[in-house]
From TrEMBL:
Gene3D superfamilies in the cross-refs: Clavaminate synthase-like (3.60.130.10)
Region span, Disordered: 1-26
TauD/TfdA-like domain boundaries: 33-316
GO terms for biological process, alphabetical: antibiotic biosynthetic process
PANTHER family from the UniProt entry: GAMMA-BUTYROBETAINE HYDROXYLASE-RELATED, TAUD_TFDA-LIKE DOMAIN-CONTAINING PROTEIN
GO molecular function, one term: dioxygenase activity
Keywords noted in UniProt: Antibiotic biosynthesis, Dioxygenase, Iron, Oxidoreductase
Cofactor: Fe(2+)
Organism encoding this protein: Streptomyces nodosus
Protein name: SyrP
Pfam families assigned to the protein according to its UniProt record, in alphabetical order: TauD (PF02668)
Amino acid sequence: MSSSSSVAPVLQVEREPGRPPLVHVEPPGDVRGWAAEHREALRARVDEHGAVLVRGLGLREADQAGAVLAALAGELMTEREAFAPRKSHGPGLYSSTEWPSNQPMCMHHELSYALDVPGLMLFACLTAPGEGGATGIADAERVLEALPAALTERFEREGWLLTRSYNDEIGASLEESFGTGNPVAVERYCRSHAIDFAWQSDGSLRTRQRRSAVVRHPLTGRRCWFNQIAFLNEWTLAPEVREYLVDVYGEDGLPFNTRFGDGSPLGEDIVETLNATYEEHTLREPWQAGDLMLVDNVRTAHSREPFTGERQVVVAMAEPRRLADGCPSPEVDGR
């Protein structure tokens, strides 16, 4: 169908149990032109299903993928407050988070601890892994409904707390996270984004930020379980990794950890419940080279499963939103 046609492009979505919504397309000659022509149709499928995987585009190069993602989303976001390093492939286009390939990245909503969160996530697979490595997705409304009511009610009252300790050995550096290593600029950012901070005697930085665990979707108004409570918690780490980090940095010096909003620690049983509930609602499909996935970041959580072989997936974030109920701190709610 040509771009001059008066008939809007139609994209047929396949739905199968346990798999994300899938659209098969014939390889287009001009993939960026195809993306521009089908932008509204694809976005409508994301609004309908929360995510959509497009197969057949034949994406192979980062520049090509970046042009396609920009055509679908417009201006791409610059990441701030990253918890782990990424490689940049150009403005707003990044590698997947540098995370050990044998360790899972559990379900989460990207930058759900920031004030300005991406409304849309875009993934393009340039090289598929040998085994594993799927980007799973889970419906945040259904996860919220499935979790124990007493637990979600507490998180809804208190929010959740993210603590971070920046050092030069593990996790994102100050410059990678804040875009600058200048202490004055870092402090200015923290103050304007409702982040408590304290410089340590060795020059390192520790921060605390309280955010909402349940938010209403900005378009539908439906309640979503929206956070990174399980993923960034110490009990999600592999036991040997947690033991090493606690031994080196201490309980209060972990690169990142999560707590109840009142500062109380989370028990291992709670984190296991969160991750088990996510698993029950996970949809997954092995990546194929050239695949594209669009994800509504508020409605849909995503993960990255362990993998073998080379895996190259580039990522972009778009449509920044400052959620009205995203931060339970009074000084932010009143803005």
